[in-house]
Each structure stands twice: as C-alpha cells, then as structure tokens.
Amino acid sequence: MSEETTVVHLLRHGEVFNPDGILYGRLPGFRLSDAGEMMAKKAAAWFAGKDVVRLVSSPLERAQQTAAPIAAELGLPVELDERLIEAGNAFEGMRVAGGAGVFRRPANWWKLRNPLQPSWGEPYVEIAARMIRAVEAARDASRGHATVLVSHQLPIWTVRLHLEGRRYVHDPRRRQCGLASVTSLTYVGDRFTGLSYAEPAGATDPDAVPGA
C-alpha cells in the first residue's frame, strides 16, 4: 500500500504595528497593523481548497490574529503550541536601527561574540529541535491531509535550513520568509520529500525590519 502524502504549511504572521522599530520578540501587546490584518485575510483565501484539516498557532498575539481569518475561512478551531513561539532574543524591547540601534552601543557588543550559536539569543539548534517536534506532531495528526502552523520568521527559516541540510548561520536579510508567506513541507509517510514557498500577500518591503 502506498504511503500517504501530508503537507505542513508554515505560515509567518502578517505585518505588526511597530512605528518605533522595536525588536518585539516575545513581548506582549504587539498586534497586527491594518496592512497585517489584510495580509492575514489574503493568506486565508490562499488556503481555501487546500485540504487543511488542522490549524495551530504560536501563542503570541500577532500569530493568533493571523490564524483567525483562516479559522473563519476553513471552519477550524485554533490550537496553540508553545513550540511555535518566536525565538528568544537578548535585544528584545530595544530599537534595532537608527542612532539608538542596539548595534551602535559598545555595551551590546559582547552579546554578538558568537554568531554560530547565536550568543544573543536562543541557540539555533534548540529552535530547530522544537520546530521539528511541532512539525512532526502536525504531520502525524493530519496524515494524508494538510495542517497550517502559524509561527515567526526565524523559527520557520531555521527549520527550513535544518530540513535542507544547510548551515544555521546566515544573513537575516537573505531569509526567504516574507510577511504572511507560506513555507510548505511535504512528507510521504514520515519522509520529508521537499518544500515550496509562496507569498499570498505579496512580497515584503525590503526595508522592513528583519525578524519576528
């Protein structure tokens, strides 16, 4: 008997209202902007007809807001999974650009000592491990169908690097993981067979702050 094909869609949340350019990380109170809410609606329309039987979100507000239109479109409840949360970051709550940016302060340079880990936040290996567990749980719960996992840029990009056998160290500006983008992982049985990438809400502004 042939093995079933299962797809796990990793959806990055939409644009966040962040006029001060804060690296918000896991901080509460950061919601989608008006544009971000529209992105979420476009993503919901994109998932229509894609045999999605389960919807799971990071517990952060912006991810749950992104999941809400999908839940309405597909008639699914939104489950929460802590493993999908944004990566921990020592610069959380600080501005990341401009004259007051974190990289202009010598006191912060020690945190940048090891980009291989990275020394300023949650280690890549730990991000990849928790994301893989979330992805495999989603695969097992929706055999022969599809699941949507709503997460954040760095966790999605890290698990992609892991599955493609690439090094974790990278330039954040080169991540292929735009706002409200979808990285779709295909499995045949338990075997990962490839991925595809789509931007239902269009390309992200190249001047947007990386991350989150």
TrEMBL record:
One Gene Ontology cellular component annotation held by this UniProt entry: cytoplasm
SUPFAM superfamilies in the cross-refs: Phosphoglycerate mutase-like
Gene3D superfamilies, A to Z: Phosphoglycerate mutase-like (3.40.50.1240)
InterPro entries: His_Pase_superF_clade-1, His_PPase_superfam, PGM_Phosphatase
Matches recorded under SMART domains: PGAM
Coiled-coil zones: none
Entry's Gene Ontology molecular function annotations: phosphatase activity
Name assigned to this protein: Broad specificity phosphatase PhoE
Lineage: Bacteria, Bacillati, Actinomycetota, Actinomycetes, Geodermatophilales
